[in-house]
Design a protein that fits this description.
Elements (H helix, E strand, L loop, with lengths): L1 H45 L2 H7 L2 H7 L6 H24 L3 H44 L5 H23 L4 H42 L1
Length: about 220
């Protein structure tokens, strides 16, 4: 035991400069990661991500589980963890712990999939909100009977496609997700076609009625 302890102490003293540098790099990484997280949260607050999600009814979903909805903070934490892992790999490289570094490196290599999934989710939020407002708002002004149906179809369809795209990007049952993705697109195209057909009939009737009034 004494020999083992002596070897340990000697190894620790020999590698103490590397350990010190590794700790400095990691602590610096924690500071950088925290700052980046705050910047990400601030950015999403400026583009009103949480506000739009509340208008889409997401807050009531979280209330059912007695949880507070804060997607901006959630995304900020994801980015923070990425930077922590990034600086951790540098620290492990200084300590020459290649096996552990390989595991952490695999996590970092997977992160682009997470970032792309985040971007898909953000686009889905804005497309669902924008499409629903434009279609329902403008078509209601024209008094089209099936405007609500069409608006809800596009909004729900956007979310379904976004969820499938996120699952595919995260490499979760990719073959099954791709098959469902194709089926959902076909269903949405069919639903929109039917909605436009039924709504177009009312619009055409209104147009003909206006022409008839002007001719008289």
């Amino acid at each position: 035991m004494q020999n083992i302890l002596d070897v340990f102490v000697q190894e620790f003293v020999t590698r103490s400069p590397d350990i010190a540098w590794a700790l400095i790099i990691f602590v610096f990484g924690l500071i950088v990661a925290s700052r980046v997280k705050n910047l990400v949260i601030s950015f999403f607050d400026k583009i009103r991500l949480n506000h739009i999600l509340r208008s889409l009814g997401w807050e009531s979903f979280f209330d059912r589980f007695e949880a507070k909805m804060n997607i901006a903070k959630f995304f900020g934490i994801i980015v923070e963890i990425y930077f922590i892992f990034l600086f951790l790999t540098i620290s492990l490289d200084v300590l020459k712990l290649s096996q552990v570094n390989t595991i952490v490196g695999n996590v970092i290599n997977y992160y682009p999939n997470i970032f792309i999934a985040m971007i898909i989710f953000i686009f889905a939020v804005y497309i669902a909100d924008f499409s629903k407002k434009i279609i329902i708002g403008k078509m209601d002004q024209e008094k089209i009977t099936y405007s609500n149906f069409l608006g809800n179809t596009i909004s729900i369809g956007t979310w379904i496609l976004a969820i499938l795209a996120i699952l595919y990007q995260l490499q979760i049952v990719q073959t099954l997700v791709l098959s469902i993705f194709i089926g959902v697109i076909s269903l949405i195209v069919l639903s929109v076609g039917i909605a436009f057909g039924l709504g177009g009939k009312d619009m055409a009737a209104k147009l003909l009625e206006d022409i008839e009034k002007r001719v008289r």
